[in-house]
């Protein structure tokens, strides 16, 4: 499989992906082949010569996806492989102008490589972002432990209360996850139902917390996407730690939260 010399900005983004993969693995948020990452790299390929169709793979896509360059992890690949073997566990694919197939322009070097089975759901978020949040180019799905635990708690059934409980735990959570968490009802992985619920979540929230499964977020780049999950999970961890210690945390008061909102114009 031939690949192409990448623009410098693309190489920098791939380095960020390897860095975040290390964070995810160290936190135990991506066991085995759990989790996946995708990035709409189209803006970084503006002066790139479109690939020939020699390695063309037929695959139907929405018409709106025509011409996109998408970084995506591979089916069955391990996120930990992105740390030091990123070209074997991921690829950048170009969706042709007819949106009826793609060419891999970089990566995919493992035998039998194919893009993640979650490509369609990731692409749905990218197309939503293209229309509504064009600066958001990264999508990250992982299994942050404390957030998943909270998705098993009765608090999960009340989105407003869950967000308030997490925001109260630490000023940074209110500031850096300002729109909060969507409590995404349980649905089978890879289903249209889950993809639609997740995309809807990003109309008004920063994170889609999938009930009893994991969390998905979208941001300008992969590092900022990591930050959303990292900060939100800190709030969840603090809350669970207080409960485990046998007390209900006092949390930030209404006036204290309001002060943060006014200072940071939330």
Structure description:
- The structure is a single chain.
- This protein has a nine-stranded mixed sheet with strand order 2-5-4-3-1-6-9-8-7, sandwiched between helices.
- Helix 8 links the parallel strand 7 (about 180-185) and strand 8.
- It contains ten helices and nine strands.
- With about 270 residues, the protein is of the alpha+beta class.
- The mean pLDDT is about 95.
- Helix 4 (about 120-130) packs parallel to helix 8 and helix 5 crosses helix 9.
- The chain has two domains: about 10-140, Class II aldolase/adducin N-terminal domain (L-fuculose-1-phosphate Aldolase); about 145-265, L-fuculose-1-phosphate Aldolase (3-Layer(aba) Sandwich).
- It is elongated, with a radius of gyration of 19 Å.
- Helices cover about 40% and strands about 15% of the residues.
- It has helices at about 10-25, 80-85, 85-90, 120-130, 145-150, 160-165, 170-175, 190-200, 220-245, 255-265, and strands spanning about 35-40, 55-60, 70-75, 90-95, 100-105, 140, 180-185, 205-210, 215-220.
In a few lines, what is going on in this structure?
This protein has 266 residues and is an alpha+beta fold.
């Amino acid at each position: 499989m031939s690949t192409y010399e990448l623009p410098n900005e693309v190489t920098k983004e791939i380095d960020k992906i390897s860095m975040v993969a290390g964070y995810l693995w160290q936190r135990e948020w991506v066991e085995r082949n759990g989790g996946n990452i995708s990035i709409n790299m189209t803006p970084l390929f503006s002066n790139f010569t479109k690939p020939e169709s020699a390695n063309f793979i037929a695959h139907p896509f929405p018409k709106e996806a025509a011409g996109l360059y998408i970084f995506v992890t591979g089916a069955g690949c391990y996120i930990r492989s992105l740390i030091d073997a990123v070209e074997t566990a991921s690829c950048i694919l170009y969706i042709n102008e007819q949106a009826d197939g793609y060419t891999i322009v970089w990566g995919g070097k493992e035998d039998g490589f194919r893009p993640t089975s979650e490509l369609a759901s990731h692409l749905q978020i990218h197309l939503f972002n293209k229309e509504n949040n064009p600066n958001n180019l990264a999508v990250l799905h992982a299994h942050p432990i404390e957030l998943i635990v909270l998705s098993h708690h009765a608090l999960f059934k009340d989105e407003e209360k869950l967000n308030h409980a997490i925001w109260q735990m630490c000023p940074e959570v209110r500031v850096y996850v300002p729109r909060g968490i969507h409590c995404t009802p349980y649905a089978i992985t890879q289903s249209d139902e889950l993809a639609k619920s997740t995309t809807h979540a990003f109309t008004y929230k920063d994170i889609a917390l999938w009930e009893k499964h994991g969390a998905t977020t979208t941001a300008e780049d992969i590092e900022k996407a990591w930050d959303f999950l990292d900060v939100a999970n800190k709030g969840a961890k603090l809350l669970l730690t207080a409960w485990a210690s046998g007390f209900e945390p006092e949390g930030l008061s209404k006036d204290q939260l309001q002060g943060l909102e006014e200072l940071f114009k939330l």
